[in-house]
Specification:
transmembrane; 0% strand; cell membrane; mainly alpha; ATP synthase subunit I; 5 helices; ATP_synth_I
Amino acid sequence: MPELQQLFYRHCKYIYYILSIYVLGWGFTSYKSIFMGLILGTSVSLFNHWYLVRKTTIFGEAFTSGKKVRSLGTLVRMATVILAVYIAGKYPDTFHLVSVIIGVMTAYAVIMIDFALQQIFKSHE
C-alpha cells in the first residue's frame, strides 16, 4: 500500500495549504465565524481522511493474511461530522454552520481534483 500512503501525504499537503489560507482569512478579515467554520470542517475532513486510510491499510493487511475486518469505520467518521455540526450549532457566533459543512467536504474535493490532475498529467506523458 505504499501508493496509498503517497496519495495520502499529497492530499495532506494540499489540505494543510488550504487550512493555512483559512487561518489567514480568519486573522485578516472580518468573516471570523465563516473561516472558523471552514477550519473546523476541514480539520474534521482531514481526520476522517486519515482514519479511512488507516482502516483501509488495516483492511488490506487483514485481507492478505486471510483475517476478517469488521468495518472501515463509517460510524466513527459519521460521528465526527455530527460532532462538528453539533459544535457549530452550539456556538453559532463562533462557527458558521454552512462553512463547517463545506469544510467537511474539503478532503473529497481535494481527492477528486488530485485524481483529475494526475489523469491529465498521465495522458501527456
